[in-house]
């Protein structure tokens, strides 16, 4: 890219120079293409509109130079909108600007004088203005992040002018309120929506008023408006879900669930009520079964009325349900401390009272070249021995030094995990879906990744992980490699499948991070395949019991994490659930929950909008 061409204004000036040359040569079509390019870079730049006006004077039908078709360029759409408005076809021009906003909501497509001119509202039918505002609303989140609101303010000014020109048009007032609400103008949203209800009391205008009150922090009035909306149309169950959500947001869970039950009594498969109901029941009692039932519903009803985020909201930031917990080993804590004191530590010596999992030991030795580790004694049961004999061997030992027992993975496998590995997911079924990218990676390569994790990717997240906690990247690779196993030989019934056998070998191998990764893959399989649940719950309960038994004799650094995995397992036996809770409580009483060490990258994920 030539110097300066990454600057929008300079890019637009370059396009305008080419447009002027084409105009001088009488090549109007090429001039139009360069004007479209300029307007895409700088939609409000005065020089762009000057050249567009010059182009319009050269032909009787400048609009035809910006024809619409399949895969039309957005600059062409916006230029055509301005020419239509200049020709007195304002409604068509607004439609195209709204379409451009729907495609790129963060660009200032409407920040031009003709959109905010007070007289425009009188030139366009109020029904049409309402549709334009609703089209804009449909393209943006509710609420719009503050940083993204400025390009929408011309539409808000249009709305202001429109309700002034048409003060008794209920739909227009409601649509204007919806836009105001999205960009943080709650007071104006309430005013306009209230006027809309007064002018035209309908279900929709009452809903807009309810939403406006909710955004303004007036829940009682919001519920009252939504109740009136429900009275207008008792069969519209979406309003029931809105009432429930509003009540729940203000701590009235029992009242909220009563509305959900009313909706489900009318239609047990209505998606909004099902999603909201499971989310609220989980919020009330914390029972995993509500989330599993919601996941089952999502799988069995893929054609929902719209996208729902209830399951993701419930799983967000929860260990294993929504994110990978960081490691809890003493040797990893030492690594973190050394990194905090020195960005590139080398050498040194540490003493451990007992040997820790091979992945942890290996991750630290890789991160700190030359580090000498002295293990005072080997506690029993010997951590170097598998918990059950006969499975696959990932590690071999030279005294206390853990070495990979498998060859390195292929470069393709290493690159794939660098592309797909991530320490968070929306929920277990989403993690399963994301791991489909490993379906073309050979199972032996996936196993090799467990003991030969490649370098972290040169991305912001990759660099942040390596700077603060390199062990997290190792765990990330292992988790995604095991999830990848679930996508091999999927035609085989679960009970006799190769994927189950491989994961069980890992579960009962040496005590390691790979144990956690394999257990999470099994737990994920249970989430997405009900036929696997009884088997997986049995395996998890057995492995948890083994962790508890070993913990009586020596520390088990993965105990907290395995217990959290158990609490994420569908249909787990109540006794196992109780044991898992006891282990979690015991670990957290000791003031060392791994979740606390996760804060730095959780802040990173929030910054990135993940």
TrEMBL record:
SUPFAM superfamilies: TPR-like
Record Pfam families: TPR_19
Transmembrane segments: none
SMART domains found in the cross-reference section: TPR (SM00028)
Superkingdom of origin organism: Bacteria
InterPro entries for this protein: TPR-like_helical_dom_sf (IPR011990), TPR_rpt (IPR019734)
Name of the protein in question: Tetratricopeptide repeat protein
């Amino acid at each position: 890219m030539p110097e300066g061409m990454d600057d929008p204004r300079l890019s637009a000036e370059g396009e305008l120079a080419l447009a002027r040359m084409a105009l001088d040569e009488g090549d109007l079509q090429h001039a139009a293409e360069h004007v479209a390019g300029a307007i895409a870079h700088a939609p409000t730049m005065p020089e762009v509109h000057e050249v567009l006006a010059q182009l319009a004077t050269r032909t009787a039908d400048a609009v035809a130079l910006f024809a619409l078709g399949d895969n039309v360029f957005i600059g062409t759409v916006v230029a055509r909108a301005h020419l239509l408005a200049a020709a007195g076809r304002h409604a068509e021009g607004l439609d195209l600007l709204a379409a451009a906003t729907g495609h790129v909501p963060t660009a200032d497509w409407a920040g031009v004088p003709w959109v905010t001119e007070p007289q425009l509202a009188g030139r366009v039918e109020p029904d049409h203005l309402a549709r334009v505002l609703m089209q804009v609303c449909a393209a943006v989140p509710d609420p719009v992040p503050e940083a993204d609101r400025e390009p929408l303010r011309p539409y808000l000014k249009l709305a202001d002018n429109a309700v002034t020109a048409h003060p008794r048009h209920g739909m227009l007032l409601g649509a204007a309120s919806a836009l105001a609400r999205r960009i943080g103008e709650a007071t104006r949203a309430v005013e306009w929506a209230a006027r809309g209800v007064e002018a035209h009391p309908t279900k929709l205008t009452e809903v807009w008023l309810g939403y406006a009150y909710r955004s303004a922090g007036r829940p009682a009035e919001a519920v009252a408006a939504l109740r009136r909306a429900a009275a207008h149309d008792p069969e519209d169950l979406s309003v029931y879900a809105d009432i429930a959500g509003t009540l729940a947001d203000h701590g009235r869970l029992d009242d909220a669930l009563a509305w959900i039950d009313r909706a489900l009594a009318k239609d047990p498969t209505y998606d909004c009520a099902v999603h909201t109901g499971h989310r609220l029941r989980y919020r009330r009692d914390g029972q995993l079964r509500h989330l599993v039932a919601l996941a089952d519903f999502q799988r069995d009803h893929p054609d929902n009325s719209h996208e729902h985020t209830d399951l993701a909201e419930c799983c967000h930031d929860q260990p294993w349900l929504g994110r990978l917990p960081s490691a809890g080993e003493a040797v990893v804590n030492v690594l973190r401390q050394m990194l905090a004191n020195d960005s590139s530590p080398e050498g040194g010596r540490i003493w451990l009272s007992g040997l820790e999992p091979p992945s942890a030991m290996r991750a630290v030795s890789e991160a700190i070249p030359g580090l000498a580790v002295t293990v005072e004694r080997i506690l029993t049961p010997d951590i170097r021995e598998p918990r059950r004999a006969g499975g696959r061997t990932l590690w071999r030992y030279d005294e206390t030094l853990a070495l990979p027992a498998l060859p390195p993975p292929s470069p393709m496998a290493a690159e794939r995990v660098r592309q797909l590995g991530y320490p968070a997911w929306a929920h277990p079924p989403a993690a399963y879906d994301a791991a489909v990218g490993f379906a073309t990676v050979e199972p032996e390569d996936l196993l090799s990744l467990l003991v030969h994790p490649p370098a972290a990717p040169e991305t912001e997240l990759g660099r942040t992980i390596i700077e603060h906690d390199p062990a997290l990247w190792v765990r990330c690779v292992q988790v995604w490699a095991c999830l990848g196993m679930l996508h091999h030989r999927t035609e085989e019934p679960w009970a006799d499948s190769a994927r189950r056998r491989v994961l069980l070998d890992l579960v009962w191998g040496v005590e390691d991070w790979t144990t956690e990764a394999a257990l999470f893959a099994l737990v994920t399989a249970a989430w997405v395949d009900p036929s696997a649940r009884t088997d997986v719950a049995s395996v998890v309960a057995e492995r948890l019991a083994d962790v508890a038994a070993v913990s009586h004799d020596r520390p088990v650094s993965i105990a907290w994490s395995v217990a959290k995995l158990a609490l994420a397992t569908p249909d787990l036996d109540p006794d196992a659930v109780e044991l898992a809770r006891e282990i979690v409580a015991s670990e957290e009483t000791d003031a060392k929950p791994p979740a606390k060490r996760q804060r730095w990258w959780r802040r990173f994920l929030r910054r990135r909008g993940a």
